[in-house]
Write a structure and sequence with these properties.
313 residues; mainly alpha; TIM Barrel; three-stranded parallel beta sheet; two-stranded parallel sheet; globular; binds zinc ion
């Protein structure tokens, strides 16, 4: 699973550099891994079919310009199938996601002690003094992930006032989404597209009707814009608390083939279950080679099995 990708020469610990991405894909080619598409994996799981050993699936979430212009061509260059999950409202240019707005507010604020402002204090975060902007952003995002989505716009408005900035209606340059036209061009070149909700709101925090709308409208919109989207859903945020049986049922009834989470883990062909197909685990692409090689080995899988075994005891 990939998220944002760095521009050439940009140093940002949260973003994957194009050089590193090439090194990872090159490593997999040199060590006889087989790239398969997400759809192929899900169909194999559904029909109990065997996959080649050392199969790897790549996905990328959200739909920003860097992902389209920098990361996608690298996957094409390596002939590696990529399923690109997009926030459809972002490509429709009707929203920019609330979590991106938090990042932007904190990055653009010149306030020396935003962690002490009234809005942050109200969130009751346990913050150390002089924390970095990165930790402050993460703490606020995590706090807002736990509350009812309808309160978020007002909290963002207050936070932006405390931060001394005005949230622009249209996303600033660093948060520009790709266009549908670019998506169509990438689709023609072989990139697969699939929906990642309309607004990037956490489904388990939404009322039933709004939650259903997020799931159905995202598919409708991507299906309207693109020729051949893949009907696999990607849960916003994707942790186990962010979706549950209620969401899985709606996704199945809406005709989706499967769904992916952000719960870390590997898909198992010998353990076929509907639950697995509608909450497929993924591993975030690490930003260093040592971790990447460990993820590709069976160490991660063995660790997972051990945890499962000890929880059964
Ligand atoms: Zn996302």
């Amino acid at each position: 699973m990939l998220h944002r990708v760095a521009q050439q020469g940009e140093t940002n610990a949260g973003k994957i550099s194009p050089v590193h991405l090439r090194n990872c894909l090159g490593y997999l080619v040199d060590h006889d891994y087989t790239f398969i598409s997400l759809e192929k994996l899900i169909l194999a799981l559904k029909h109990n079919q065997k996959l080649p050993p050392k199969s790897v699936v790549f996905t990328m979430d959200d739909g920003y310009v860097d992902q389209a212009e920098i990361a996608s061509p690298i996957f094409l260059e390596y002939n590696c199938p990529l399923t690109f999950f997009i926030i459809t409202g972002m490509l429709d240019q009707t929203i920019w996601p609330w979590d991106a707005k938090i990042s932007w507010i904190i990055e653009s604020s010149e306030s020396p002690s935003l962690e002490n402002c009234a809005t942050v204090k109200k969130l009751n975060l346990k913050l150390d003094r002089n924390i970095s902007k990165r930790i402050l952003r993460r703490s606020i995002q995590n706090a807002l992930k736990k509350i009812d989505t309808k309160y978020i716009p007002e909290i963002l408005r207050k936070l932006s006032i405390d931060a001394g900035v005005t949230i622009p209606d249209q996303p600033p340059l660093a948060y520009q989404p790709m266009t549908w036209e670019t998506a169509r061009q990438l689709e023609d070149q072989g990139i697969h597209f699939a929906p990642h909700s309309v607004n990037h709101n956490i489904l388990s925090r939404l009322g039933r009707e709004t939650m259903e709308k997020e799931i159905r409208d995202a598919w409708q919109s991507i299906n309207h814009e693109l020729k051949n989207p893949v009907n696999v859903f990607c849960y916003p945020n994707g942790k186990l608390v962010d979706f549950g049986e209620r969401e899985i049922e709606v996704i199945k009834n809406a005709g989706y083939l499967g769904a992916v989470s952000t719960v870390p883990g590997v898909a198992r062909c010998n353990n076929r279950s509907d639950d697995q197909i509608y909450s497929l685990p993924r591993l975030a692409l690490p930003n260093n080679m040592t971790d990447f090689i460990q993820y590709c080995s069976w160490i991660e899988s063995a660790k997972e099995q051990l945890t499962r075994y000890s929880s059964l005891k």
